[in-house]
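Here we describe the complex-level prediction in full. Unlike the single-chain runs in Section 2.1, the two entities below were treated as one system.
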Amino acid sequence: MDEMTQKILSIVEDVSGLDNIGGDTDLFADGILDSMATVEVLVTLQDTFGIQVPVSEFDRSEWSTVNKIAEQVKLLEN
Amino acid sequence: MVRSMHNITPYTSPSYFIYLLILLLPIIIGLFNGRRFKVYETIATLGILIITFFGDNAIQGISLVAFIIYEFIVVFGYRRYRENHNNFWIFFWAVVLAIIPLVIVKVSPVAHSVKLSLFGFLGISYLTFKVVELIMESRDGAIKEITSWQFFRFILFFPTISSGPIDRFPRFEKDYDKVPEREEYLKLFQSGINKIMQGFLYKFILGYFFGTLMLPQVAALAMSYRHTNFLGLSWAILPYMYVYSMYLFFDFAGYSLFAIAISNFMGVKTPANFNQPFKSVNIKDFWNRWHMTLSFWFRDFIYMRLMFLFMKKKWIKSRVTIANIGYVTLFLIMGFWHGLTWYYIVYGIFHASAMIINDAWLRFKKRHKSLPSNRFTKYLAIFITFNVVCFSFLIFSGFLNTLWFVK
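The structure predicted for the assembly as a whole is:
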């Protein structure tokens, strides 16, 4: 897990209050993140990495795990 | 000939299914052979729309045409503006303009008596949802390109025109743009057939049983205690509550299955509307399983955007307060959307309260990890959720209004 992924993982763990989340845990299917928590994660990502995440381009299937979020953040950084 | 025609509500009469089958046949044969006859689909769509909206009461059809032209101007006008500018208030007014026809229909007094006012037509609220989505995603840049034909095709997609499910433009276009492989289409076709069968069972057998056979009986029973009990409330309200809830589910889920099946026949995977809602373990879970395309629309275009705004502007510190304000806003809008009656509004407030209480309970549970969690508590949770939901449908049904206020 690279540094960015590690950082995202800790953001997700902070927001959800859980500490047993893996890189490939499905964050939506298991109810780890509800809508509110999702927005919290997005806002924190914006502040941490200086990216813009339009809510409507936020496709749940592409943001459903910590590893996938890391991929998306990398895409948005470029 | 024309005089003997009637407006046919989609999926309610055998004649509609027969017309549909005849019109769909060339499309199905085409897709089986790897081709999409776009010109024919346009003609078939016009045919279906004429049957639905121009039968005996052309006012509906004229309203639909006027509505589409109006919304076309709003969407493309906004998109033209958006090419070079991005002022929030212009966006805001574009959304307001888009929902004005719906608001007029909902507030005009005629709407209460015949369900449709002078300017209304069947499905206006569902079309409005799609239009608002187009404007919002145009602002975000999620919809890069849309031609006028794509606009009409998406908005007037006839399988879902009267009551959803509410599809999204980028998803819809992805399906429509490509012709599925034969094997994939075969699977889609088969799943469509299964959905039609399930839809018949739901709508015409179970929905009929609960709605047409049982409901008047239990209503009469509950009404018979109207003057003997306090506020007319008696145990007989319970049968009404459960029967109405079953009717509401089977009728609407059956309809949705038809709409999805017909979409499938046309090579479009319209999203599902129901996912075993009565198995929900809490009210949040329920809204992820009940009328899903509507609740996801509200989630993505109202709730999450509002949360985003609140957090970015840091107007309020407490996350809990922000979430709760979001629930109240969302469910009040949903209540008003159903119509301007006290029971729809109360239905909205009731669900907002249920969500707030549920969130508080989930937080409590998180802090107290020692609370029991087993098969029994799960069934208990399902039982409680089911009854809360059915009670909300009792409010929604308007039966209490009849019981208390109708002379």
